[in-house]
Amino acid sequence: MSVTAQDVKALRERTGAGMMECKKALVEADGDIEKAIEALRVKGAAKAEKRGERAATEGTVQSYIHSNGKIGVLVEVDCETDFVARNDDFVGFARDLALHIAAAAPVAVDVDGVPVEEVERETRIAEEQFADKPDNIRPNIVKGKIDSWLKEVVLLKQAHVNGEKYEGRTIEEIRAALAAKTGENIVIRRFTRFAVGD
Q1: For residue 147, which of 48, 69, 81, 88 sits 20 to 30 Å off, Cα-Cα?
Q2: Are 69 and 102 a contacting pair, CB within 8 Å?
């Protein structure tokens, strides 16, 4: 079956993959666009793993202002190319991320971004809470408590607030799926959450 330029263009717009990759995927899938998308996603997941260290110097800044005007968010999400930066899925992810940050109020993007003094404070509280536990199991209980707390305050560990749309997946799982789909390194660079009175 011959693959037309329109087919390749349509596949490229849906996946963000390169023109030659799209053409090859369509040829291998006998022109079936859904099969070609699936093949590109499988290849994209493998490529995204390799691209994890590549510089993400393009991207978008998206915002969200809550309807009551009392909470607002700015978030920067980066990728490798301006083509992906303009992709509807990429921009939609950044917008949904801004909404999530407004609702979930994370402290940092990743564990490394959590202020050391906050981790130390939570550790002290946990140690006091479980002071009556035996010495041989107390450290594991405290570690479990800290891990649970980090899931609440670290953006990448949080389940997206729109559970229906994202099926309970974490922000990191959603980010990784988008990286696999686009074949690019996707980085949540930073965010700022504003709340009246904070």
Answers
A1: 48
A2: no
Domains of the chain by start residue, with CATH = 5-51 (1.10.8.10), 58-111+154-195 (3.30.479.20), 115-152 (no CATH)
In which element (H, E) is residue 188 found? strand 187-195
**3-state SS, one letter per residue, for 28-78:** HCCCCHHHHHHHHHHHHHHHHHHHCCCCCCEEEEEEEECCCCCEEEEEEEE
* Percentages of the chain per state (helix, strand, coil), in multiples of 5: 55, 15, 30
pTM over 0.70: no
The DSSP letter of residue 79 is: E
The per-residue pLDDT for range 98-151, each reduced to its tens digit, is 999 999 999 999 988 888 898 889 988 988 888 888 888 888 888 899 899 999
